[in-house]
Design goal:
Layout (H helix, E strand, L loop, with lengths): L2 H26 L1 H35 L5 H18 L3 H11 L1 H14 L2 E5 L5 E5 L17 E5 L14 E5 L11
Antiparallel strand pairs: 1-2, 3-4
């Protein structure tokens, strides 16, 4: 999606939001509309803080058990988006923000995203893993689409000058003579 489309989408959304605010203000009056918008922002900030803390605690518990907290990470992203929607003035953004902040709707949406494959979580054999987000477009690496480096990677584990065994940074050995050799170096 190019910059022009993003800008046009945001512009149209803002215009619709202003029209909804004006329509509500015509029915209930501007002072009540302003109080309603400020009140939803305050309620949203309290809800965001409470739900964010709950998600953070669940994330830490799963990590301490050696499990991948994929759902908690997805919910955390939804909480951030919901909090941003709630502090943005308007009734449409408030509705979207509450959908993303309320636990039952947020968890259902997170489950649906994970099941659809929009977000995938994986764990390696040792229980350590990561979460990645991917788009439906293909990677365009290779010639003309990015840098591709051919080489081997190794970790230098020689003692540091002060005598302790610390991990050294990962180094790339480009175009080594026996690069086809298998196993650790």
């Amino acid at each position: 999606m190019g910059f022009g489309r993003v800008f046009l989408t945001i512009l149209i959304f803002a215009l619709v939001e202003v029209m909804v605010l004006a329509a509500v203000a015509d029915v209930i009056g501007w002072p009540v509309t302003i109080v309603a918008v400020v009140t939803t922002a305050l309620i949203g900030s309290v809800l965001f803080r409470r739900q964010g803390l709950d998600t953070w605690v669940r994330l830490n518990e799963r990590m301490n058990r050696g499990e991948m907290p994929g759902r908690e990470l997805v919910e955390g992203m939804m909480l951030l988006l919901g909090g941003a929607f709630l502090i943005t003035p308007g009734f449409i953004t408030d509705a979207l923000g509450f959908v993303l902040l309320l636990p039952f709707t947020r968890r259902a949406l997170a489950e649906r995203l994970i099941r659809r494959g929009a977000v995938q979580a994986f764990a390696s054999r040792g229980g350590n893993g990561g979460v990645f987000f991917y788009q439906s477009t293909q990677w365009r690496g290779g010639p003309g689409g990015g840098n591709v480096y051919d080489g081997d990677a190794s970790v230098d584990r020689e003692p540091a000058n002060d005598g302790d065994q610390r991990r050294r940074p990962l180094t790339l050995d480009e175009n080594e003579e026996d690069s086809g050799r298998d196993g650790p170096r």
